[in-house]
Amino acid sequence: MIRAALILLGFLVIALMVAAGFALAGEAGLASVEWLGWRVNMTAAAALCAVLTLTFVAVSVWRLLLWIIETPTRNARARSEGRRKQGAEALAKGFLAAAAGDGSEARRLAQRAAELDQDNPASASWPPRPPKPPATSPPHGPPTTPCWASRRCGWPATRG
Q: Mind listing the pLDDT tens digit for each residue in 17-27?
């Protein structure tokens, strides 16, 4: 927003310098505008200044409207960023608590980090969960044999 205002202000200053050059040249020209029954006669330099000033005002109002419309998106982004930072801080404190041997505090901070920052894979995988037990073979059916012990493996040495 500030960059756009500075660019517009720069163009306005350049246009004012051009209008001043027209006025100082002696042949300023004439501009006449008739609108809704009103007639306005002015020099070309004054018309240029009026057009540029109206353009500046119109663009400024447009940018202000866009800034107001984008406010909810900016607020949501700021909230998300704040939650992400709080989650990273809670995760770091949880790692420190785990290193210090305080398991309950580490778990509490890990849960807080997972609630705050759901997109962070580190907070989703902390605290470490116990490994799943290995799958047992079904009680029915033939026992499975490894490929190297089977003739169906496809190795040339095992074909008969």
A: 877 777 777 76
Query: Are 87 and 63 in the same domain?
Result: no
The confidence score (pLDDT) of residue 160 equals 47
Q: Are 31 and 47 in contact (CB under 8 A)?
A: yes
Phi, psi of 21 (to 5 degrees): -65, -40
Phi, psi for 95 (deg, rounded to 5): -65, -40
Number of domains in the chain: 2
Dump the DSSP string for 102-140. Answer: -HHHHHHHHHHHHHH-TT-HHHHS-SPPPPPPPPPPPSS
Whole domain around residue 52: which residue ranges?
Answer: 2-69
CA distance 86 to 81: 9
Distance CA 94, CA 84 (A): 15
Report field, pTM of the whole predicted structure over 0.70: no
What are the b/e assignments for 94-131, b being 16+ CB within 10 Å? bbebbeeeeeeebebbbebbbebbeebeebeebeeeee
Say yes or no: 63 and 119 in one domain: no
